[in-house]
Specification:
The protein is mostly helical. The chain contains 4 helices and 2 strands, in the order ααββαα.
């Protein structure tokens, strides 16, 4: 991505501490790639995840990964679960947030191999 693009400038401002967030209406893949390149990831986290927070009667329901990763390994899904748990603890002040795995059905035979393996890891 061009170093002068508005997306790159916004991400650089976050890195420099001059902004707390970067919001973009641009290409999601480009934003995630730029953020990963410039900001890096936390130790133990291989990929970023797009998150949305939905209001609930107990605060929020946080849903990760909403389109940032097309083909995630089971370990990545576990990392997303950890990130979601940390987010729920920080934002909603929950000591032990419940984490679930969204799948195409409740039966153990449903879902692709990665999702089945992630369910076992969780």
């Amino acid at each position: 991505l061009k170093k002068e693009s508005s997306m790159r400038v916004g991400i650089n401002l976050v890195k420099q501490g001059e902004a707390d967030a970067c919001v973009s209406a641009g290409n999601t893949g480009a934003l995630m790639a730029t953020a990963r390149f410039v900001l890096k990831t936390l130790p133990g986290i291989d990929r970023p995840a797009i998150c949305t927070s939905l209001p609930s009667t107990r605060g929020h329901v946080h849903v990760l990964d909403l389109g940032a990763n097309v083909d995630s390994k089971a370990e990545h899904l576990l990392q997303f679960a950890v990130m979601g748990s940390v987010l729920a603890t920080a934002v909603d002040n929950r000591d032990n947030p419940r984490v679930g795995l969204l799948n195409i059905g409740a039966e153990e035979i449903k879902g692709n191999e990665q999702v089945k393996q992630a369910a076992t890891l969780l």
